[in-house]
Amino acid sequence: MIKAILLDVDDTILDFHQSSLQSILQAADKAGLELPEAFFPVFTRINVSLWESYERGEIERQEIFERRWKEAFGEVGIEFDGILFEKLFRHNLRQCAVREPGAERLLKYLSERYPIYVASNTVIDQQVSRMIIANFHKYITAYFTSDNIGFAKPSQEFFRYCLNHLKGIRADETVMIGDSLTADIAGARKCGIRTLWYDKYGKNVSDAADWRVTDLAEIEKIL
Ligand SMILES: [Mg+2]
Fold first, then answer.
1. pLDDT at position 126
2. What pTM did the predictor assign?
3. 19, 21, 209, 168: CA torsion to nearest 10
4. Ligand 1 midpoint to CA 8 (Å)
5. Which residues contact 101 (CB under 8 A, 6 or more apart)?
6. Which of 56, 87, 164, 168 is found 20 to 30 A from 202 (Cα to Cα)?
7. pLDDT(123) > 90
8. CA–CA gap between residue 163 and residue 65 (Å, rounded)
9. Which domains does the chain have, with CATH numbers?
10. What is d(CA 192, CA 171) in angstroms, rounded to the nearest whole number?
11. How far apart are CA 34 and CA 101, in angstroms?
12. What is the mean pLDDT of the chain?
């Protein structure tokens, strides 16, 4: 029997791609930069690769923020201080929360049945701020973020910390819902937590998780 939900935020209930795109455009505007079309795929590739290195424990999180703009600007030939751009970007991102389709309905449905705990690799006040703006904060029992725990998904320490704070609820009575096969699904599975993969981009990897959905609305049939 399922008794608690661990829930990823970015690209699960908030559309991080759209939220960050808006925040980048606003930051560029403020910085007086015109970003060429080519910038966005370059930045995405560099950013994803840095986050993957972080998940593998190869770099500290701070390194992502120090390197991503500098390297992306460098590749497209823009001269601008990457650290300053990160500040402008983060300031905007705190106030930007584009909802994933079906997220509000899902949160309402789940919150009437289970306590929902956010489990996210991020800075806690930024995530709470975005959840408030999206009007999702009211559905959340508590926040577990890499920032306040000191460990990140997919480490065992992260998930064990969450389980230790679920007050008597066992791993197999808990479901981790998220879009990342590495951070959310593989990590939770190793701790015996049940897993529901939001396969947003239809990668369709078999046996990766206990359940797989491509639309958040399908979750109501499962949980
Ligand atoms: Mg995610």
1. 87
2. 0.86
3. -30
4. 6
5. 215, 216
6. 56
7. no
8. 29
9. 4-15+99-222 (3.40.50.1000), 16-93 (1.10.150.240)
10. 5
11. 30
12. 95
